[in-house]
Amino acid sequence: MVRLAFVGAGQMAEALAKGFIAKKVVTSSKINAYDISEARRRVFAEELGCKVHDSNDSAVANCDVAILAVKPQYLGATARTVSPESWDNKLVLSIAAGVTIETLKGLLPPSARVVRIMPNTPCLVGESASAIAASEEVTPSDVELVKSLFATVGMTISVEESFLDAVTGLSGSGPAYVFLMIEALSDGGVRSGLPRPVATKLAAQTVMGAAKMVLETGRHPGELKDMVTSPAGTTIAGVHALEDHGTRAAFIDAVYKATLRSKELSKL
Ligand SMILES: NC(=O)C1=CN([C@@H]2O[C@H](COP(=O)(O)OP(=O)(O)OC[C@H]3O[C@@H](n4cnc5c(N)ncnc54)[C@H](OP(=O)(O)O)[C@@H]3O)[C@@H](O)[C@H]2O)C=CC1
Ligand SMILES: O=C(O)[C@@H]1CCC=N1
After folding, report:
1. Rounded to the nearest whole angstrom, what is the distance from the C-alpha of residue 96 to the centroid of ligand 1?
2. Which domains are delineated in the chain?
């Protein structure tokens, strides 16, 4: 069984570790971790049962695959806390938004093989969307290993590295847009008289059901929308309100602005 190391044990590292453990792809005893925050080290040791180290160097020295999971701004300084000997021959996965393979290679010895991945938090429930871009040195068996690891917590897709900023703007950040949407739909239900727990449950199930229809039928979302929309009915009244408030443009702009921010992070 592969030995992992999380360099940074924050929100996303926790979501991935919990997902991997739940799917039994890695046992907690094979997950090494370090975080500068004692509170985060405690979560990994006490809640997840992982091997928590007293440095990034020790965590990486004891792994086959290291997952860089600190904020992009701290990646350079963090990578330098690990000695070249500990990085030697490691498969290094970076989930950091924006930070390019070229930058990552500049931080690591030449023997390290670099893969960038952009997952999202639904890995916690086995429904992540992870896009993967590998550097030239990465072997086909490395790619297979990464794909099989992340496939246990959701779907994986290989992309050109140049697409990763857009992926980050869409699926990396996307759960936040959808949570906001569910919260707002629930507010709408409450505004119309539903009790909050009923409204939130209906909103979340509706989003999940609609998403499943897109994925499972392969039909265009516009066509599926038309199936709900009766002439002079309730849905077209709701759709008109959404169009009137510029909802479609707001989503397009959200993804675009997040993409631009990912590009900015690559320059830090
Ligand atoms: N959250 C998400 O949905 C997603 C995040 N990502 C990427 O994942 C990465 C982590 O994001 P996220 O989990 O949200 O961030 P968090 O801030 O929750 O986690 C990062 C952790 O790293 C710690 N840290 C900082 N410096 C070091 C260091 N030198 N050594 C060890 N640990 C350190 C931080 O401690 P402290 O807080 O004390 O600084 C923090 O606990 C980012 O690069 C982000 O772009 C990718 C996909 C989705
Ligand atoms: O907000 C962020 O920067 C990170 C990257 C993608 C999701 N969260």
Report:
1. 8
2. 4-166 (3.40.50.720), 174-265 (1.10.3730.10)
